[in-house]
């Protein structure tokens, strides 16, 4: 019985250590975020080859948007089936590690614009116009300048959170743009 208690106690301590360690993700460098050479804005974009007509890909994109966002009517800024374009504006929540080093507190929302364009056998996504939602637009590109007096090292963490959230969004979009698998019931 004592060995079972020992195993349980050790297990709980290991779980707590891993949980606390996992929460203390503190970055000390900027993430490798893509910067558009013309706009100088953080911009994630890619043309993805995908089987399907423009209409089919547009319908998949619209279905993905409706599934991805809890309030797609508020998120969708433009949808045009003829042009094959959907433009969405949504937010990413960012957090800051609190003073105790164990918990996170909300640090606000970062807005982004997602454009999905469809053509025959391909689609393109563009994610850009990322800014901190405050009383005025505060582009995240300002967080790259470590010489500013208002700069804080917490910006590293915020930028990494944004980068990770956008990459997850892209992976989710690519998955949603796959054609539905047809199940044939051969009995």
Please provide a written account of the structure.
With 187 residues, this protein is α+β, with helices and mostly antiparallel strands. It has a single domain, classed as Alpha-D-Glucose-1,6-Bisphosphate, Chain A, domain 4. It has four helices and six strands. Strands 1, 2, 3, 4, 5 and 6 form a six-stranded antiparallel β-sheet that branches. The longest helix is centred in the last third of the chain and has 23 residues.
Give the biggest sheet: 6 strands, antiparallel
**What integer value in Å does the Rg equal?**
21 Å
Based on Cα principal axes, name the global outline. elongated
Low-confidence segments, ≥5 residues, pLDDT <50?
4-24
| CATH architectural name | 2-Layer Sandwich
Tally of structural domains: 1
- The string of secondary-structure elements, in order, is HEHHEEEEEH
Structural class assignment: alpha+beta
Taking the alpha carbons of the first and last residues, their distance comes to 54 Å
Q: Brief description of this entry?
A:
This protein has 187 residues and is α+β, with helices and mostly antiparallel strands.
């Amino acid at each position: 019985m004592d060995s079972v208690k020992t195993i349980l106690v050790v297990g709980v301590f290991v779980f707590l250590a891993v949980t606390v360690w996992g929460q203390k993700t503190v970055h000390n460098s900027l993430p490798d975020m893509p910067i558009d050479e013309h706009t100088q804005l953080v911009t994630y974009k890619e043309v993805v080859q995908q089987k399907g007509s423009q209409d089919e890909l547009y319908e998949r994109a619209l279905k993905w948007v409706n599934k991805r966002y809890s309030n797609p009517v508020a998120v969708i800024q433009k949808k045009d089936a003829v042009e094959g374009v959907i433009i969405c504006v949504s937010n990413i929540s960012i957090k800051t590690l609190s003073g105790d080093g164990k918990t996170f507190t909300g640090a606000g929302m970062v807005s982004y614009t997602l454009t999905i364009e469809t053509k025959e056998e391909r689609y393109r996504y563009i994610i850009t116009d990322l800014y901190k939602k405050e009383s005025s637009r505060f582009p995240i590109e300002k967080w790259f300048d470590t010489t500013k007096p208002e700069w804080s090292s917490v910006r590293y963490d915020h930028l990494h959170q944004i980068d990770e959230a956008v990459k997850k969004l892209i992976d989710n979009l690519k998955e949603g743009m796959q054609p539905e698998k047809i199940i044939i019931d051969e009995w």
